[in-house]
Amino acid sequence: MASVKAPGNLPQLVKSTFGKARANGDLLYFPTQVTVLAPTSIPKVFNPFENPDKGLLIAELAPDHNLVLNKFAVVQEHFILATKSFREQTHLLDANDLEATYACIAAYHDSVPEAEMGSDAGEGELYAFFNSGEFSGASQPHRHIQLLPVARMREGIEEGKWDVLAKRLVGEIQDLPFTVFAADIEPGMSGQALRDIYLTLYRQACASVAALLSKGDIADGAEAQTEGLARISYNMAMTRHALIVCPRLSEGGAVWDQGEAIGKVSFNGTVLAGTALVKTSAEWDALRSDPEALFNVLKTIGVPKSSRIES
């Protein structure tokens, strides 16, 4: 049975810490619009998770993790589960990483009265994702998993127009342009049970990349791997009932407008929620006017569906 327990008032704790940190200038929140569609000479990179700012610290999650606000939040109450001691972002996740992640998801769900669970507002839902490797959208080497309240992700979207893609990925989605590997998970699973599922999906992802690139050593080595450096770039996502691994071959691609490249759209683990972040209004306008352009970029970021193999 799961032994890590997140604070029972976690949603309220995240919300109050976020509000206080924003008021005090401890974090920067960039409101967004949404729509449905090391050489030794280089100075040491700042590690925001080594000694997190007190204004950003939500809570300690014994024994191995801290919950901290994302200093550069793009949705309100965006927070992070980070290991207390340095662990590599590019190495395989441990059982306690996955157990702690699910504990946060469970705490959000348990905070909402059962009578309100039928609402479409996303209250009580938490979307978790992990970026690993050069093509995954990862930006920090210290191991961390990002958590987004679904209700905050939905703000600005007309009711019923969008829901988290990962919730539907256990079944086959015919129009998804890249391969994902997904499995059901349930409340009460131990960290080791979650990790067994994660490793199975990781190995399937490695096999798909190996088949596409004709590099059998990727799959052969992954079959017995339980720790150390991941053999591929990938995103992991977790919801209350699903765990997903998506192998990655590129971070993104160019955004075109009337035959001219006007920018680039990059994807991290939020792609498994069915979202993308663009940096300029020109990119925003181009993608809204031609949704097929976004679909074309998505075709390039992972293993094409026709290359998928089962293991």
Automatic annotation (TrEMBL):
Q: Which InterPro entries match?
A: Ap4A_phos1/2 (IPR009163), Ap4A_phos1/2-like (IPR043171), Ap4A_phos1/2_N (IPR045759), ATP_adenylylTrfase_C (IPR019200), HIT-like_sf (IPR036265)
Gene3D superfamilies recorded for this chain?
A: 3.30.428.70
The entry lists its GO molecular-function terms as:
ATP binding; ATP:ADP adenylyltransferase activity
Q: Which Pfam family is an annotated match for this chain, by its short name?
A: ATP_transf
Tell me the domain of life. Eukaryota
Q: Which GO terms describe its biological process?
A: nucleotide metabolic process
- Every copy of the Ap4A phosphorylase 1/2 N-terminal domain together lies at 44-154
Protein's recorded name: Ap4A phosphorylase II
